[in-house]
Amino acid sequence: ALKQKVNIVYEAHFKRTFIHSYDIARSFVFAVAHFDELKNEIFNVGSEDMNFTKEEIAEKIKESVPHHLHFADYGTDPDQRNYEVSYAKIREKGFETTISLSDGIAELLSGYQALHIHNPFSNVE
C-alpha cells in the first residue's frame, strides 16, 4: 500500500489477531513478576480488542496510507488462518495490552519514513 499505492485483499472476512512487540515484552515481565501464580499454565497474550477481519485491518491502514483498496472476489489467500482468540485467562490475572492497532500502524509508518528507504527498482521482482 505504501509503495505501490494499491492493496488487494483476498478473503476479507478472515479474522486475524494482533499484538504490539512492546506488549509482548511487557507480558514477559508480567509473567516473571507473577511466576508463582502463573506457573504450569498456558496463556494467550493479547486483547479481544485486537481481533479484526482482514477488511477492518485494510480499512485501518487506508486511514493512514492513501491507496487503492480492492477486495478480490476471486482467488484465495495462501494463508488460510481464520481465527478469533480469547484473552480472558491472562486478563483475569491482571495483564492488559496498551498499544492499539492504530498506534502500531502509526509507529510502523514513522519508523519506515525515518529509515528513508528508497529503492528505484522496488516494483521489479
Structure described in brief:
It contains five helices and four strands; from the N terminus they run E-E-H-H-E-H-E-H-H. By secondary structure, the protein is α+β, with helices and mostly antiparallel strands.
Order of helices and strands: EEHHEHEHH
Please give the radius of gyration in angstroms: 18 Å
CATH architecture: Alpha-Beta Complex
Q: Unreliable runs, pLDDT <50, ≥5 residues?
A: none
Largest sheet data: 2 strands, parallel
Helical residue percent band: 25-40%
CATH class: Alpha Beta
Tally of separate helices: 5
Question: How is the largest sheet built, in terms of strand order?
Answer: 1-4
Percentage of β-strand residues: 5-15%
Quickly count the domains.
1
**How many β strands by DSSP?**
4
Shape: globular
Span between termini = 16 Å
Q: Determine the CATH superfamily.
A: UDP-galactose 4-epimerase, domain 1
- CATH topology name, in short, is UDP-galactose 4-epimerase, domain 1
Summed over residues and divided by their number, the pLDDT gives a mean of 87
Structural class: alpha+beta
Explain what the structure shows.
The protein is α+β, with helices and mostly antiparallel strands. The protein has one domain (6-114): UDP-galactose 4-epimerase, domain 1 (Alpha-Beta Complex). Helix content is 38%, strand content 13%. It has five helices and four strands; from the N terminus they run E-E-H-H-E-H-E-H-H. It has helices at residues 21-33, 35-38, 54-64, 88-92, 101-114; strands spanning 6-10, 15-17, 51-53, 68-72. Strands 1-4 form a two-stranded parallel sheet. Strands 2-3 form a two-stranded antiparallel ribbon. The relative contact order is 0.26.
